[in-house]
Specification:
heteropentamer, A mainly alpha (about 300), B alpha+beta (about 325), D alpha/beta (about 400), E mainly alpha (about 280), A: mainly alpha, two-stranded antiparallel ribbon, 13 helices, 4 strands, B: alpha+beta, Rossmann fold, OB fold (Dihydrolipoamide Acetyltransferase, E2P), 5-stranded antiparallel beta sheet, binds adenosine-5'-triphosphate, binds magnesium ion, transport (chain A), Sugar ABC transporter permease (chain A)
Chain lengths: ~300, ~325, ~325, ~400, ~280
Amino acid sequence: MAGRRARRWHIGVFLAPAVLVYTAIMIVPLLGTLNLSLFARGEEGRVFVGLANFATLFGDPRWSGAFWNALGNNAWFFLIHMLVQNPVGVALAALLSAPRLRMAAFYRTAIFVPTILSFVIVGFVWKLILSPLWGIAPGMLDGIGLRSLFAPWLGREEYALTTLALISVWQFVGIPMMLIYAALLSIPDEVIEAAEIDGITGWSQFRKIKLPLILPAIGIISILTFVGNFNAFDLIYVSQGALAGPDFSTDILGTFLYRTFFGFQLQLGDPHMGAAIATAMFAIILAGVCVYLFGIQRRLRRYQF
Amino acid sequence: MDALTLTQVTKKFGRTQVIDGIDLAVAPGEFCVFVGPSGCGKSTLLRMIAGLEDVTSGQIAIGGRQVTDLPPARREIAMVFQSYALYPHLSVRDNMGLALRQAGTPKAEVLASTDRAADMLSLTALLDRRPADLSGGQRQRVAIGRAIVRRPKLFLFDEPLSNLDAALRVATRIEIARLHRELGATMIYVTHDQVEAMTLAHKIVVLRAGRVEQVGAPMDLYNDPDNRFVAGFIGSPAMNFLDAGALGLRSDSLGVRPEHLAISAQGGTIPGRVSHLERLGGETLSYVQTEAHGLLTVRQFGEHDHAVDGPVWLTPDLERAFHFNAEGQRMRA
Amino acid sequence: MDALTLTQVTKKFGRTQVIDGIDLAVAPGEFCVFVGPSGCGKSTLLRMIAGLEDVTSGQIAIGGRQVTDLPPARREIAMVFQSYALYPHLSVRDNMGLALRQAGTPKAEVLASTDRAADMLSLTALLDRRPADLSGGQRQRVAIGRAIVRRPKLFLFDEPLSNLDAALRVATRIEIARLHRELGATMIYVTHDQVEAMTLAHKIVVLRAGRVEQVGAPMDLYNDPDNRFVAGFIGSPAMNFLDAGALGLRSDSLGVRPEHLAISAQGGTIPGRVSHLERLGGETLSYVQTEAHGLLTVRQFGEHDHAVDGPVWLTPDLERAFHFNAEGQRMRA
Amino acid sequence: QDVTLTIESWRNDDLQIWQDTIIPAFEAANPGIGVVFAPTAPAEYNAILNSKLDAGSAGDLITCRPFDASLELFNSDKLADLTDLAAMENFSDVAKSAWQTDDGASTFCVPLASVIHGFMYNRTAFDELGLEPPATMDEFYTLLDAIQEDGTYIPMAMGSADQWEAATMGYQNIGPTFWKGEEGRRALIAGEQSLTDEGWVEPFRHLARWGAYLGEGFEAQTYPDSQNLFTLGRAAIYPAGSWEIGVFTPQIDGAFEMGAFPPPVMAEGGTCYISDHTDIALGLNAASPNADAARTFLEWVGSAEFATLYANALPGFFSLNSAPVEMEDPLAQEFVGWRESCEPTIRSTYQILSRGTPNLENETWNASANVLAGTETPEDAAARLQEGLASWYEPQQ
Amino acid sequence: MSVARRSMARSIAAHAVLIAYVLIALFPVFVIVINSVKSRRAIFADPLALPTAETFDLVGYHTVLRQGDFLLYFQNSMIVTVASLALVLLFGAMAAFALSEYRFWGNSLMGLYLALGIMIPIRLGTVVILQMMVAGGLVNTLTALVLVYTAQGLPLAVFILSEFMRGVSDDLKNAGRIDGLSEYAIFFRLVLPLVRPAMATVAVFTMIPIWNDLWFPLILAPSEATKTITLGSQVFIGQFVTNWNAVLAALSLAILPVLVMYLIFSRQLIRGITAGAVK
Ligand SMILES: Nc1ncnc2c1ncn2[C@@H]1O[C@H](COP(=O)(O)OP(=O)(O)OP(=O)(O)O)[C@@H](O)[C@H]1O
Ligand SMILES: Nc1ncnc2c1ncn2[C@@H]1O[C@H](COP(=O)(O)OP(=O)(O)OP(=O)(O)O)[C@@H](O)[C@H]1O
Ligand SMILES: [Mg+2]
Ligand SMILES: [Mg+2]
């Protein structure tokens, strides 16, 4: 819309409530916390140490080892979401948006139900299902003659993270599905009809017509997945504990941060190192978001329908 | 074998009957135009032929093949939408070429076809733009280009020229006529433009509230309408309907085309006053308010001037007038 | 004071100059029509007047008040969009009534106004439908209804009739003319329909590639075009341009309107063959291919028949022809 | 009521007991003081408590974790000094040690209870298979082999998924036997022993052997899984803490009989050691506006009356009060009886050694789980722990 | 759209895939629900078995209903969720509109600023937030929770809504401007109704973490009068014992209202709301 308009108070009015609440209750506290990363506990309370905490985080092999381990795990966690959750979400949305699909509302709701559940329940039920002791997963695999494939996935270093990532995918697939579904619905019928007549149907219709038109939504989902995954914490915490076993193989930035910031068991919380980790995480996420906002989103064309 | 056969086709939206038992046969290579007032169901019927709307009942056959239950992609048709329906993310070139590429046509050939179509529709300079950056008329031309590039057996056009300017409209109309001759394709064409209907059609189908009023060659409808509705609908400006009783005739109403009403300031059969004058250069339209017959339109060739609000006399050419009974049916001599 | 003044208005999209220094004054109560080929910038200019596009440079004043930087809401205008732009979530009635209700008009009055507009546009039966359930023409009428309900000082219409059928088009055209007379409002109207332009306008502005080619009353443009472009653009079918040299004249080209070319199978000045014949009932158009002048259009009143591909002779009425120089400028006698 | 005291606690489990038994008893004796027990899920307790203390919205009474977590609160003036509380007389120095400054000068929490490690077993199953509780490690493995052989029962219920189990019920359970309880623990703190010494590696070696006797997929077995395996009668032996008594008794509900035996000794006639771990205490929020009432309450908590009430309401949580407590639960009596025959000690990692980073307790969890699951050798694990400890703990450098 | 268009095979395949996925999605939920009405013994004896006369046991539900005032918790949860949701949607949509509709200096920066919040877990700000609430006397009030959740929900709402608002036809908004609608009227009367599907989506995304949150209720409003249902359920998760019956029962009960809210919102995802706006 037009650029130079005199006195555009309304912009301020539209922005003010959100900016005020958000700044006061989110940004100020968070800045206050991140600020802690420049201090350390000294003899006489808090002392300013500059970037020393970051030097420790990246310089001390114990800290940096844990950090890189968490970052690596996090990257894998994210990768699985990108490779499984989002394509599955898009596929489900595409199926659901088929014209006059019967029971679409039921499917949509059913697929979304896991997203509604609290982490406590998700952690419990999947541990129960995957448990070698109580027989659900082994029994079902037995039923199809694949009992030998069974392993205590959550307890093995090589599988645990992937298993948890897949559980998380199971839980959250409803989110990309909803967003893509909404985006697909906003494509005008006529455009799809034109494609039908042009003989562009099924998969190629999806790839050549719908996909380009929902790219902005896919972009959003990717960045939300990225941000969500690099902030993830709860699922790992409830199912593997703050120590993210076995042997830290499921430790991601969120659990690492939590453990450090708030402490765990005998380990006292260290808000200063915790804030340093949080700042590093924040920098990583911010970098990702900026790449998206300024590199990708600008290039994505949006279409008004 | 007919290129298109409709058998008792009906369509309901909810409880509204939009198409009401239409039978129609279109011969191969024929150019068939649907006309009718806005909302009479032209687009709906076209969409049913395309397979975009279910038929509520009835049968549709294309080229002798039952297609009632076939998806649009398998009906071998091309369609120009009233709302354009361009692919917003593709350039003009890709909008036109997509169907061909989908069908596996070699690249060079696709390029040649799109270039030819772009040339024909004066779109060459716009080939790399996207629909959002085009004007209304330009979009419409792209939509036409997309259809003709594919050269299918059956073309469906939904008011393809309504956003073009006069010059382009004439040019495109002639192009479509040429295309039709060249390809020998069957075309179904919806329009509300008299000139398009009269000039392009082999066969005009006049629709009214979902029913066929009359089918025939343009001049047949013009010269021999079955009823008052068709008579009034075909020909522009529309026919005048005079009160036959007031003229001492035994029919109910008398249809006289505007060009068959003589106008004179000196005298004539029907007195009236000029209420509005439209001077188009090559012709002049006078709207004359009369006591007995209401507002009548008079068309004169060339430039003429009549004082607005001045008294005039009109004289109908009874030889070329049509008689209708009270039900609106034509009373043939 | 002028109802609308444009002073050196320009518009660029990126680096494309779309409007190129336009000066224009429209008197209060005047009906001004913009015509020009597709993509020449008509809609863009209209949107700038409405305040929907920034002007890149130049000034716009409405009713003597500088509005260049005012938001659309404060320009006291109404507009009919080429794309309709109906509110999809509101019923027809609410689409039309929204502006009034927003302005705080009493309910009863809003109802009365919308009813009147609906009646005028034959929308009464559709008042409770939503845009999605309307045909193309019906949507367009709702868009018109929305504008006229408000009765502002300045109306902007962007091809408001292009989706209406002939009868409705004539009726709506006459309605708009009546409305114009009644309200005394100033109207700016974009169209590519010759008839609309000629019949509605007090003043026609011919645009070409973002520049004004000529401004004037319809008959002035028709009878006294400044240049070949205007001559060719005003009048339908378009003027024929003959090679003046081949006729032994000293101008570069000779413009002859189709109705001023006599056609005869016996003999005449220019030999040719009929390549296409359009019989419209009240008139007949023959497209004649000639050696020296290319394809020429001949318009005859009434019904005529010429054998397609048969030899004919054409004779231009030199009295009523226009002379143009090589640059396309009119050479006045 | 004039004053209401709020108790911050991680003991969700005890909500009922506090509400129904303990608080009414206090309120009856102290009109004018009301008490609300407001527990938090244990995993979040430390984080939440610290946040509330920092912001000044925490309750009047704070349930104290042992050692450093509480010491830290005291040092930062979040907990009040309770040294002068009369009831402190009722506790031995050992009992108070977990809630004192390193020099023992100030005490800041009133000790509530300790827990004792040992092994519970399914007596019914043992009878069925004709087995006896073991006294030595060798007998222990013979016993496990026998159960394994028979195949009806999983020999032992333990998983490595929660890590905690392997460390607390495994390493800290049998460990004191090898590092000789307090002797080894103090030597480690003094820097005279290291974690790579035999006494500290040996328990890992045993853990490594246990893997063979655990249920299938024990790597993914959680602590509640283990509890359920045992109480459902599917596992014969359960390396336990005494707190399980109160949990298991109603769950088993007479389906079989439970018994308990202390950690087996190294060889016939060797000294037996038990972990009798000071676990829970109650302190006073230094910022409490109701300090007087809170002190009244704490005096009562330090009384013998409270000790009896608490220990009987929560069998398996043993009073730290010097006054002898009559307990009704036979299994609880069995556990507490070991105090007579064995040398008690506390968990090796709790005092001082978990003050730095890496945190020895957390590392021990991790190492124990790894060793149990067989992903790390006992020697590697021990070396890693030692290296971590030495990295910040001077006496070990 | 047409029946003719859908070939039979395609639609059967679509249903097959969807049903398969629904089974995957619902199977664990099914496990939860059947086990919430079984005795503890039966849960672990055979977690897949349907409750029989023997194993059927409502002890979990009894425990839940006996422990504290669950109706009140429920009401608290409802109030907090609905109020936060309303504020998030309103403020978020307004900000999103400003960002997507107007070009002004600092637009992208403001967008980025408002998005920062999704990049750091708000838990880290707990102490400062708690201090503010203590200072404002808001501890143990639902208002404190509403404020925090509003702030927490805004970034995502702004992010998603502004993306969707960019898709609303300019002509439409312009028609409104010409109709004399103020920018506020355009926002409330035109844009909001048109982005209803997106609003519903955001509502769902916002509501779930609020409903399921344990942290802030524990910190800001742990009192009996302000407990939320999720906080109420966590009494059953203890140090050494977790009362799975009660947890399953409490959380199964807690699913229902969210599910109902989800159903309400998902009705807004009606097909083709914008059809017919522009040709
Ligand atoms: N957003 C845009 N970006 C770039 N070019 C544009 C944009 N909008 C319009 N144009 C171009 O500006 C020129 C003028 O467009 P405009 O819509 O004003 O044409 P018009 O005269 O209304 O044509 P029509 O009769 O076909 O509606 C066209 O060439 C068009 O392609
Ligand atoms: N989805 C729908 N639901 C209900 N009624 C509809 C729907 N689509 C169209 N109609 C109605 O069906 C009738 C026929 O519509 P159709 O679009 O076929 O008209 P048309 O002849 O193409 O008109 P126009 O010349 O104005 O485009 C109209 O009255 C219209 O309002
Ligand atoms: Mg139509
Ligand atoms: Mg235009």
